[in-house]
Amino acid sequence: MDFDTPLAEAWVRAIAAAVEEEQGRLTELDSAIGDGDHGSNLQRGFSAALAALDGLRPAGPGAVLTKVGSTLISKVGGASGPLYGKAFRAIGAALPDPALPDPAALPDPVGPVGPVGPVGPAAVAEALAAGLDAVRALGKAAPGDKTIVDAYTPAVAAFRAAAAAGAALPEAAAAAADAADQGARDTVPLQARKGRASYLGERSIGHQDPGATSTALLFRALADVTAS
Ligand code: ADP
Ligand code: MG
Predict the structure, then answer these.
(1) CA 149 – CA 43 distance, rounded (Å)
(2) Which atom of ligand 1 lies nearest, measured to the CA of 29?
(3) Above 50 in pLDDT, residue 97?
(4) Which ligand does the CA of 136 lie closest to?
(5) Per-residue pLDDT at 11
(6) Is the per-residue pLDDT at 71 higher than 70?
(7) Distance 146 CA to ligand 2 centre (A)
(8) Whole-angstrom distance between the N-terminal and C-terminal Cα of the chain?
(9) Domain that residue 198 falls in
(10) Per the structure, how many domains does the chain have?
(11) Which ligand is nearest to the CA of 196?
(12) CB 150 within 8 A of CB 209
């Protein structure tokens, strides 16, 4: 299995569905240590992303995810919009787009069009890692600061390790999703050092971070769509 355009689109649809389903929980978590808008931020962002993909003729999976990123940046306020937006743009830019489109079939081409070649687990691992780098470059959070980074970092490590060990995409994605879940749960005892929750100081301790929780949803969605 390669990470192709239909898979990229299926991932975005699965994320949108998961965010819709878990919106209440994300809102609850963000109400405890933030301003209660994380669920609605992501719901608005990913439904806009779905709409943006509608009728798009992407050059490949990279173009799909780049479009998602740009949409999140333009439609979502708050910390998470730019952070996830930059992440998806970086993931998209790092993915080699395997199928160069026939220009005649593509009156309105959507870039970027990268090097040609099937996208396997190792390439996906590196693209996801580029997304994490983008989150860290923008948000300046380190592991342990109780943010998206705390779920994303172990997910990338698990994905990379699985890919290096020869795992196929579904296994690598499942390992990453499990690691992201664990990373999100591990934010409970942490004190927030970045974002709104950091204003609470020690009172942020004892709550699971909303952003780390939504990052775990993104990785679970990837595992689900690669498994089916
Ligand atoms: P806001 O905090 O602006 O209301 P959201 O509620 O949508 O935005 O997102 C909050 C989440 O964003 C937090 O739970 C945290 O995981 C994440 N976050 C905040 N600041 C940073 C940062 N600097 N780096 C990484 N993630 C961050
Ligand atoms: Mg918020």
Answers:
(1) 20
(2) 14
(3) yes
(4) 1
(5) 98
(6) yes
(7) 14
(8) 11
(9) 5-227
(10) 1
(11) 1
(12) yes
